[in-house]
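Risk mitigation, structural track. In case the binding assays with calcium ion fail to produce interpretable data, a predicted complex structure has been prepared as a fallback.
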Amino acid sequence: MSTLCSENYRHFYNALQAETVSSDDILNLVPGALEYVVDELHIGKFEIQIELAASSSEAAAYNKSKVMYVSPDGFDYMAHARVIKTLDKGRVSFAVFPQKGYEWNDEEKGALDHLIKNLFIIMAKARLTELVKKRQLTDHLTMLPNTTSFSMFARDLGLKGILGQYTVIFSNLKNFSYINQTLGSRAGDIVLKEYANKLKDMFSTGEIIARFGGDNFVALLKDENVDKYLKNISRINIPVALGNQTRTFTITARSGIYSIPETMSNPGEAVTRANISLEHARHSGDSDRIYFTEQILAQANREREIISEFKKALSRKEFIVYYQPKVNLTTGAISGCEALVRWNKNGQIIPPVQFIPVLETQGMICELDFYVLDRVCADIVSWIRDGITPARVSVNFSKHHLRNPNLVDDIMAVITSHGISPTLIEIELTESASGEDYVMLGQFIDELKTHGIFTSIDDFGTGYSSLSLLKDLHVNVIKIDKSFVDNIAGKDKRDRIILGSILTMVTGLGMEVIAEGCEDEEQARILKEMDCTTIQGYLFDKPMACEEFTRKLSEKFIYDVSL
Ligand code: C2E
Ligand code: CA
Ligand code: CA
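Fallback model:
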């Protein structure tokens, strides 16, 4: 057993203890390490064969045979062979041949076994380290690099000073949530996996495509390869076996693209810019490929500012409610009004188009709507207290509220806390595209009705299901969208015919109609002719601050309706 304690064996062992991580690195060190012990152990040849099956941790099978040492003086063929199985059904075979004319005794064979075992342990440890490392850098579902891996790769390019030769493409699959929702997440996973497999063929050395969670994929490609990649991902067919049939899904992607300038060395900022462009593509709906511009960045910064300032603004009561009268076309009297919010930001009145769409994307709109409802109730209370006959006020409620199972209770809680009659409040809702929302919308409307709260459908005619909505939803009021009113005075008679039919249908069903956005007398005259009783529009008044509206209410203001 002298060998195991020998100086040479210590050299052999130390030579394999370098700061190595990969199993390939270890294999490369073995020949040098063996040099220390071959004479002492009379080794003529040393061969290792590694066979590993493909597995979840190893994408492809691995098969390698390597001669680690051959003596220049030759060797005998009577091998001392050992096979060691790995835990994941792989095997490592060692074959050691004696120097020419030499025969090992049992003690020497024992020493050889010990050497083999030690070598195996060192190799296994290296492989394990390698696998753990790989797992930390790989997305488990798709086996693409993950965000950590992407960051390391990109940082490396930054350090080499060549990031400027690259473009970041941040992509999101367009119809993926449909697949996930209709066929289940298992089918969704298959699609993601297959999709990732296709992506694996789309980049060359020095480039990377990573999965950034969900159905987000980020590519860092050399500028010259971008167009080809975008073309490749514009439509990808993925066949998916579902039961005994195969369905092919055509996957399209939406991408934000940022070509990194020479001056930029921060890859994180580059990814953010591509992501901002993708968000822009998603919201604008103009194109599936949006290239970053400074304007997009400015808009994203404005939006970020709105989101970060919103809560503070709400607590400081910076949001104020304007009222726009609804005018009875026969009498000229104010028959009600709509509450329309504004943001008083350092004395500057910001219109809702500039912040409501942003709050909608974050779901923050719900808080604002409840705030407006609360302010409206307070204004109604002060009208009643001052002896003014209150007008029924309609309040806009975003469709985000439909996710709230306690919505009606929450609304009632606000109204009753002010002690006013629920019949003074009307909730305006817009048509909704998806079927699920539609059912919820119906239930919500019916529940509000049982409490005496009025309901209306806003922007009627702009959604997908306008006509079936008339049949299924039991709302009190239909608000005809401005776009219909805009064209009724034009040459084309068709707009008038459509609007006339809608009016007949709605009034026939016992609902009230309000035409929105009426700007001139000609439009009002035609609407009156068609038996539309109520109008809301600039022709009579723009939305106004509460004091001004209160004055009009208290004087029982009559608009001139002699058209
Ligand atoms: P909307 O609910 O369709 O409100 C009507 C919009 O049309 C108002 O714009 C009003 O000022 C405008 N308008 C009324 N008559 C005329 C007209 O004759 N000509 C023209 N050109 N415009 C007219 P506003 O106040 O800027 O509000 C825009 C949108 O913001 C609203 O459209 C509504 O969707 C949203 N919004 C306003 N306040 C709230 C709120 O408290 N909550 C929610 N969720 N949305 C709100
Ligand atoms: Ca409205
Ligand atoms: Ca409207």
